[in-house]
Design a protein that fits this description.
The chain is mainly alpha-helical. It folds into two domains: 41 residues; 31 residues, no CATH class. The chain has three helices and no strands. The radius of gyration is 28 Å and the shape is rod-shaped. The relative contact order is 0.09. Its main location: membrane.
Length: 94
Amino acid sequence: MDIQNFELLDGVQLSIFAMLVVFLILVLLQFIIYAFKYLPKEQAAKSSGTVKKAVSEASSAPDEEEMVAMLVASIMAKDEYKGDVVIKSVKRIS
């Protein structure tokens, strides 16, 4: 393929090749994205859902200070116990 003698057929071949490369990359990305659901989920993702559920179960309408206290307590307990934490009640100790 010479630049001086570039014909319509050469352009069509080049275009088809470029489109095939793009579609092959898209199919490869599709398989990679599909494989993400088989990867193990992180522990942090599970514990954040448990914290949200525990906060909603603790009381129907907690004020902002209680919410912050519950979240901080669950974060501290998660580090210590290495597992899911459920908060059942909140008491002020100061």
